[in-house]
């Protein structure tokens, strides 16, 4: 069965080829082999295999296209789904022998680079070598063994090689190693013990900032109580469920930064500590995870100030933006929140039209540009920072004008002539200033704030009538803010109680668009069921996925209309492929497309999981079978046909994609 994730990946590839030339597809084939792409490596592949077939400018076109994402300085990577499609097509079109030939050539290329000066780091070269070797069946055992040995070298360094900065270095290298192992997982599936160990290390990096202090000495690796064999390498047994250390009381400053600015952040941290200022510098979270951990959130909440190491890289970092948004959200719910001081490193905060940059300019900004070349300027600005920290943090007054602006933006949505791009921008702006609409975010208890709509009566389908017991449906699909709290809660995603009878992935799907008021996506049916169980426990009444008939009743009001708003298609009433946006929007941006019961986004934006199986509608049992489950409503990537209220789609219950979300319902009565 073709998943929608694969369909979307193929759409991206097709769009790339249509934009340029069919010959570009060949370059994409070869570029899919390495895990990490560099301009130098891509040039090498094109010259060796495609000289005369693909123009040199195709190299830059590929790296700057949406097939690739920057992951470091002059380093790029493809999404796993895109790589998988390209490699499958390469095998089919060029043959397995050619793929292995390229892999062997890549190994030789890396070995040559190792013998000569190069701008590539040792990590990058090691990644290229392992990724190439993993395509050769006779080399996979070597790759697995070398990865295990690398874990041993990082986790159990000898005392003489353990400098004072080793904690920082090991955290970064371990994070890189765990990511490498995860990316190679399809090729290393015959070594499950290695994949499980890498997952344990990743969890340790995320949940326990003091993990390096618990390392066992090398002499105890022969003891089965303290060691575990992994691909014939003795590794320290790791405790991944230990509690994280508490956030220090009286915390003054939370330092937010991107990895590119880590040198400045560490220098700043050291100077502040010299002056007796309590700080939080989250080294492990910045390099090891994709979701803010609970300790990071607690540290932000406990801080009086957030010191934002502000650069172009920082303002484009999902992590940094999410940390800043935590502060702004707290400011809207109460006046007890950190005050943000931006430390300008490159001038981008003043040249950018980004909404966040404009918002940060309203608060204190200190000029640290050129700090490396001008130590005197660093000292001067640092003194100004110390003076600011001695004062009581100003009380944020942003929330009142922000709410006023929000009300104006929300009123604009009622204009039927508003185009798709403007609606999308309004949603993004609401996310920046704090979306005040009920049902979009969290309540005062930090739990999802669901707006419930009552649904009852008869459902008519092709002259058949179905009695539907009264129930309540959520006005919107579950948003990223409402789903993220589940993934981050200590008793949330990782709690085994919610996964009884279900297949559970080690960690949640990676949200593509981390914007609070957009729908949660890359959510499987099993993820959604676990979320409902968790929310039921929190709210004290049953929350579940709607059955297919309940979903259609909420979408149509019980009659046989084609779409939530009526029987004729109107592209301006939903975010489908016809909008041209090629992404999700904030929920509720199309009030004119409301269903008769008042539910929004029941056409487009994201597909919504239903409880029942696809082939047996009466089966709503929650189990770990592979039976396909139903999806309804279409998405931003599907055409108007998929947005029809009666259109049925099916996927494996474990599938995740950036077009898959969900909406919750509850059985009557629900106290609202």
Structure notes:
With 672 residues, the chain is an alpha/beta fold. 41% of the residues lie in helices and 12% in strands. Helix 1 (4-19) crosses helix 5 and helix 5 packs across helix 6 (96-114). The chain has five domains: 4-135; 144-236, no CATH class; 253-393, Rossmann fold (3-Layer(aba) Sandwich), CATH 3.40.50; 400-433, no CATH class; 452-667, paralog of FGE (formylglycine-generating enzyme), CATH 3.90.1580.10. The protein is globular. The chain has a five-stranded parallel β-sheet with strand order 6-5-7-8-9, sandwiched between helices. It has 23 helices and 17 strands.
Compute the number of structural domains: 5
Return Rg in Å.
26 Å
Roughly how many Å apart are the termini? 41 Å
CATH superfamily of the largest domain: paralog of FGE (formylglycine-generating enzyme)
Helix/strand/pairing category: alpha/beta
Sheet with the most strands? Answer: 5 strands, parallel
CATH class of the largest domain: Alpha Beta
Would you identify the regions where 5 or more consecutive residues have pLDDT less than 50? 159-169, 241-245, 284-290, 395-403, 668-672
CATH topology of the largest domain: paralog of FGE (formylglycine-generating enzyme)
Taking strands numbered 1, 2, ... along the chain, how are they ordered across the largest sheet? 6-5-7-8-9
Proportion of strand residues:
5-15%
How many strand segments?
Answer: 17
**Mean of all residue-level pLDDT scores:** 81
Oligomer: single chain
CATH architecture of the largest domain: Alpha-Beta Complex
Number of helices: 23
Helix content: 40-55%
């Amino acid at each position: 069965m073709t998943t929608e994730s694969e369909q979307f990946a193929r759409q991206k590839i097709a769009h790339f080829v249509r934009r340029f030339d069919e010959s570009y597809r060949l370059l994409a084939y070869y570029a899919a082999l390495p895990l990490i792409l560099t301009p130098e490596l891509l040039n090498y592949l094109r010259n060796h295999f495609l000289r005369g077939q693909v123009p040199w400018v195709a190299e830059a076109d590929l790296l700057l296209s949406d097939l690739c994402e920057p992951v470091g300085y002059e380093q790029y990577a493809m999404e796993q789904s895109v790589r998988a499609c390209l490699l499958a097509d390469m095998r089919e079109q060029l043959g397995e022998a050619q793929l292995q030939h390229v892999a062997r050539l890549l190994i030789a290329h890396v070995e040559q680079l190792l013998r000569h000066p190069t701008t590539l780091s040792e990590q990058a070269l090691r990644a290229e070598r392992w990724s190439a070797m993993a395509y050769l069946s006779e080399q996979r055992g070597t790759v697995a063994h070398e990865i295990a040995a690398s874990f041993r070298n990082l986790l159990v360094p000898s005392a003489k090689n353990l400098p004072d900065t080793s904690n920082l270095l090991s955290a970064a290298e371990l994070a890189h190693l765990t990511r490498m192992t995860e990316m190679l997982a399809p090729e290393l599936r015959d070594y499950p013990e290695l994949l499980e160990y890498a997952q344990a290390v990743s969890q340790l990096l995320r949940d326990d900032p003091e993990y390096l202090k618990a390392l066992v000495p090398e002499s105890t690796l022969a003891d089965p109580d303290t060691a575990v064999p992994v691909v014939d390498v003795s590794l320290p047994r790791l405790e991944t469920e230990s509690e994280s250390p508490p956030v220090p009381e009286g915390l003054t400053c939370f330092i937010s930064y991107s990895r590119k600015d880590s040198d400045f952040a560490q220098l700043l941290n050291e100077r502040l500590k010299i002056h007796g200022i309590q700080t939080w510098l989250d080294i492990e979270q910045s390099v090891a995870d994709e979701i803010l951990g609970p300790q990071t959130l607690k540290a932000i909440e406990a801080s009086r100030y957030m010191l934002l190491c502000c650069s172009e890289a920082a303002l484009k970092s999902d992590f940094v933006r999410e940390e800043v948004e935590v502060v702004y959200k707290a400011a809207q719910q109460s006046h007890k929140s950190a005050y943000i001081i931006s430390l300008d490193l490159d001038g981008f905060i003043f040249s950018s039209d980004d909404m966040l940059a404009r918002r940060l300019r309203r608060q204190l900004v200190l000029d640290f540009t050129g700090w490396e070349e001008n130590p005197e300027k660093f000292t001067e600005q640092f003194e100004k920072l110390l003076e600011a920290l001695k004062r009581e943090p100003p009380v944020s007054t942003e929330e009142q004008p922000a709410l006023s602006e929000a009300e104006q933006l929300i009123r604009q949505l009622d204009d039927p002539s508003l185009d798709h791009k403007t609606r999308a921008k309004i949603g993004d702006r609401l996310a920046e200033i704090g979306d005040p609409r009920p049902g979009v975010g969290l309540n005062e208890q930090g739990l999802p704030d669901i707006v419930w709509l009552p649904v009852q009566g008869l459902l008519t389908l092709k002259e058949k009538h179905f009695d539907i017991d009264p129930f309540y449906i959520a006005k919107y699909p579950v948003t990223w803010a409402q789903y993220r709290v589940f993934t981050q809660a200590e008793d949330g995603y990782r709690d085994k109680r919610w996964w009884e009878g279900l297949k559970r992935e080690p960690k949640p799907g990676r949200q593509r668009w981390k914007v609070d008021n957009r729908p949660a996506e890359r959510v499987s049916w099993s993820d959604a069921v676990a979320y409902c169980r968790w929310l039921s426990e929190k709210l004290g009444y049953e929350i579940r996925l709607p059955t297919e008939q309940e979903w259609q009743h909420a979408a149509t009001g019980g009659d046989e209309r084609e779409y939530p708003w009526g029987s004729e298609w109107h592209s301006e009433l939903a975010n489908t492929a016809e909008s041209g946006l090629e992404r999700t929007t904030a929920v509720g941006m199309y009030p004119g497309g409301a269903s008769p019961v008042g539910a929004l986004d029941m056409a487009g934006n994201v597909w919504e999981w239903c409880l029942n199986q696809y082939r047996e509608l009466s089966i709503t049992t929650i189990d770990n079978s592979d039976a396909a489950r139903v999806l309804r409503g279409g998405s931003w990537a599907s055409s108007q046909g998929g947005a029809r209220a009666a259109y049925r789609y099916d996927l494996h219950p474990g599938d995740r994609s950036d077009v898959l979300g969900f909406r919750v319902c509850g059985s009557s009565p629900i106290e609202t």
